[in-house]
Amino acid sequence: MNIFLFSFCFISSVGISISQNWENFSISAEITPSCKVKNNGLIKLLIKNGVPPCVIYWNEGVPYIQRIALSAGKYNANVTDKLGWISKVSLIVDNYSSFSLEIDQTYHGVYTDVELRISGGGQQPFSVMWINAGGRLKTISRSMINAMSGNYITIVTDGNVCSEINKFSVE
Q1: Tally of CA atoms within 13 A in the half-sphere of 87 that contains its CB
Q2: Which pLDDT tens digits describe the chain residue by residue (171 residues)?
Q3: 141, 170, 169: which is closest to 155 by C-alpha?
Q4: Going by C-beta distance under 8 Å and a sequence separation of 6 or more, which residues neighbour residue 121?
Q5: In the sheet where 26-32 sits, what is the strand order?
Q6: What's this model's pTM, rounded to 2 decimal places?
Q7: Do 23 and 69 touch, CB atoms closer than 8 A?
Q8: Residue 56: how many CB atoms within 10 A of its CB?
Q9: What are the CA-CA distances from residue 4 to residues 23, 48, 56, 84 (Å)?
Q10: Domain ranges of the chain
Q11: Which residues of 84-116 are buried (b: 16+ CB within 10 A; e: fewer)?
Q12: Kind and range of the H or E element at 1?
């Protein structure tokens, strides 16, 4: 078993912050949810008021202050400071709420203007790709101007690298 000693901590401005206070020191955590199909959740611990160095031990045997590539679920950590004070924390990494895609079409004779609407969950910013039935990339914006009729695939990726893939028909 490897145990690492830390005398510094990381903090991020993303995610959800929670704290667990104990008599001599406190643990805060920044949590970024995971995508449904990817294990990309994140937990960063911030230890305050303990006497460094601190020993961190997660229930899976991982000794790091930051956990990456996490699936949704419950994670437990024990942190012991130099004086032997132990703080235990339980953290939950949630799934990001998915987002939904719809299109608005405006027909102009031979061509159609198409606007993609993204609603529901997801994390800004969103990137969009439109691919035609032949597999060619048509545009990388939410709007497709002068689109030919046919079937298109949209791949939308949010700021947490969660993706939704949909098939749309343009008339």
Answers
A1: 25
A2: 333 333 332 223 333 444 454 456 788 898 888 887 778 888 999 888 888 888 999 988 889 999 998 988 999 999 998 888 888 899 999 887 778 889 999 998 888 999 999 988 888 899 999 999 899 999 899 999 988 889 999 999 988 788 888 899 988
A3: 141
A4: 96, 97, 98, 99
A5: 16-21, 26-32, 41-48, 66-70
A6: 0.59
A7: no
A8: 23
A9: 23, 17, 7, 15
A10: 5-93, 99-170
A11: ebebebebebebbeebebebeeeeeeeebebeb
A12: none
At 125, list the tokens. Answer: 């910013």
Number of H helices, E strands in the chain: 0, 15
DSSP label at 84? Answer: -
Tokens of 27: 């643990």
**Fold classified for 5-93:** Immunoglobulin-like (2.60.40)
* Count of CB atoms situated within 10 Å of the CB of 61: 9
User: 5-93 with 99-170: one CATH topology?
Assistant: yes
Residue with tokens 């303990």: 50
Query: Could you report how far apart the first and last alpha carbons of the chain are, in Å?
Result: 62
For domain 99-170, is the CATH number 2.60.40.10?
A: yes
